Amino acid sequence: MATITTRDGTEIYYKDLGPKDAQPIMFHHGWPLSSDDWDAQMLFFVRNGYRVVAHDRRGHGRSAQVSDGHDMDHYAADASAVAEHLDLRNAVHIGHSTGGGEVARYVARHGQPQGRVAKAVLVSAVPPLMLKTEANPEGLPIEVFDGFRKALADNRAQFFLDVPSGPFYGFNRPGATVLPGVIQNWWRQGMMGSAQAHYEGIKAFSESDQTDDLKAMTVPTLVLHGEDDQIVPIAAAALKSITLLKNGTLKTYPGYPHGMLTVHADVLNAELIEFVRQ
Description:
Layout: E1 3-5, E2 11-17, E3 24-28, H1 39-47, E4 51-55, H2 72-85, E5 91-96, H3 98-114, E6 117-123, H4 142-165, H5 180-192, H6 195-207, H7 211-216, E7 221-226, H8 238-244, E8 248-253, H9 260-263, H10 265-277
Parallel strand pairs: 3-4, 3-5, 5-6, 6-7, 7-8
Antiparallel strand pairs: 1-2, 2-4
């Protein structure tokens, strides 16, 4: 397995596929998954001649199950360590859900200052803030995230079946075509990781205010969001992000769920490569 060790001693697993002299596309996965969640996109971009890189966030997948650092700052620093180790330049960074938050912080604090980033894509992403506050009434109440924490602590295995079986892919909607393999793959990825990392990650994806990260991003940034996203409310995320980005483009999809990259990969892959080629 390909791994690097970060400055705080955490071992991070990564994949690096395709021609090493091609433009790199780096993918950042959502909670509580792994780089495997990008299979459909990585295969697509490799077949189109790109270099593709994806890593497992600390505490997730095949990366080390460390006891600390489960916050957006460490997530971004770990991503930066991978990008520096591989010397990725002119890279496009694509993040889904929590991975979108990771991309925003990475680009703002590491990628742009180092001159490594060409473009960014935020897909069903959590920025600027998921938590409902007086200044962010479109967010979700803290009780929702407390419920996530309780469900995870009580029975993580069952919780990790319930999420993909229902709201994540919209399989709870009338007439939805339920894909058991997709549900099982979500469960497999989640259960590979650390319960502690997943528990603490809830705070990271729900309470990290990334307004300043979005304001600091100057590279062309594509924001994609499903209009039937039951996990990350579009009103608190994409519709606000686009007002904060200096160089952003927003595209939304009627009826698409949070996990649209998997269940609508053909549509999203075409959208992504069009943006990369512009």
